[in-house]
Amino acid sequence: MIGASGENKLVLRGQVGDTPQFSHRNHGVDYYTLPLRVPRLSGAEDVLNLITPGEGLELWQVGAWVEVEGEVRSYNNRSGVGRRLVLTVLVRAARPAVPGEGENHLILSGSLCKPPIRRRTPLGREICDLLLAVNRPYGRADYLPCIAWGSLSALCGQLQVGDPLRIEGRFQSRQYRKVVDGEEQVRTAYEVSIMNLLEE
To answer: Over the chain, what is the mean pLDDT?
Structure first.
């Protein structure tokens, strides 16, 4: 997708779940990956994968509370193992946080790049699945699966491919079960849960 850079601003507050592991080097900078455990008001938690530059690694002590500013990023997994579209959080800034409530607040603006899919959950709730293309600088884009619930799902279901969309929501993880070669596996999916549609 070529065009103006889209809005992609995420604020998280949660606990470091594991020791940072080296991921890759880009333009002379080492990057590390680690999970951040972000509690929800419901008592559940989202476990989100962060990618952070190597400086300031002493901040990422297991169990420490950290506040993060960053972006949701997508890339295609070409290893042939696991899901093809991989979603992570690129850390732009991080600081120590006071233990307590989690935070998970995301603003995205982009364009719809697939027709919306409306469906019902097994419990009868209406939902709508969207794929949002969010432009980065230099002609690249992130492709982010989004989900809308209830009355928002009806509004989102009327959108057309190419429509601009600006949303407020949260970046979340959820586990699901899949049978592969006769064996049940527990997998984790990542998606944007839409809370509000915002004016462009």
So the answer is: 90
Nearest 5°: CA angle at 46, between 125 and 33? Answer: 140
Q: Tally Cβ neighbours within 10 Å of residue 1.
A: 15
CA gap 22, 30 in Å, rounded: 7
The residue among 58, 88, 105 that closes a domain is 105
How confident is the model over 20-66, as pLDDT tens digits? Answer: 999 999 999 999 999 999 999 888 899 999 999 998 899 999 999 99
Structural domain that includes position 31: 8-105
Cα 58 from Cα 15, distance rounded (Å): 14
Confidence of residue 81 (pLDDT cuts 50, 70, 90): low
| pLDDT category of residue 160 using cuts at 50, 70 and 90 | very high
Write the CATH number for 184.
2.40.50.140
- Tell me how many domains the chain contains: 2
Identity of the residue numbered 49: N
Nearest Cα to Cα of residue 152 among 97, 194, 100: 194
Q: Are residues 56 and 45 in the same domain?
A: yes
